[in-house]
Design goal:
Blueprint: H1 3-14, H2 27-30, H3 34-48, H4 54-57, H5 63-79
């Protein structure tokens, strides 16, 4: 899995060009509505076949942190 894959999914969901999604961009800058944020996270879970828990997301603020979290979840699933 490449970080770009996650950014591509974010771009598709938010309709923001992937080139404009910076690693240090706040997730709330991409998705300002909490309902849309939940929807986006559900789509990411489905797409990458992972489970994101509330506790996992408490420290996630930036795109880079979300990419790292998803990468960790995918790696954990592959090694399990």
């Amino acid at each position: 899995m490449q970080p770009q894959d996650i950014k591509n999914q974010l771009a598709e969901f938010t309709k923001i060009p992937v080139e404009r999604i910076d690693d240090d961009a706040a997730i709330t800058d991409l998705v300002s509505d909490s309902f849309m944020l939940v929807e986006m996270l559900l789509l990411l879970q489905d797409h990458f076949a992972i489970e994101l828990e509330q506790e996992d997301l408490e420290e996630v603020i930036s795109v880079a942190q979300l990419v790292n979290l998803i990468d960790e979840k995918i790696t954990a699933m592959q090694t399990a």
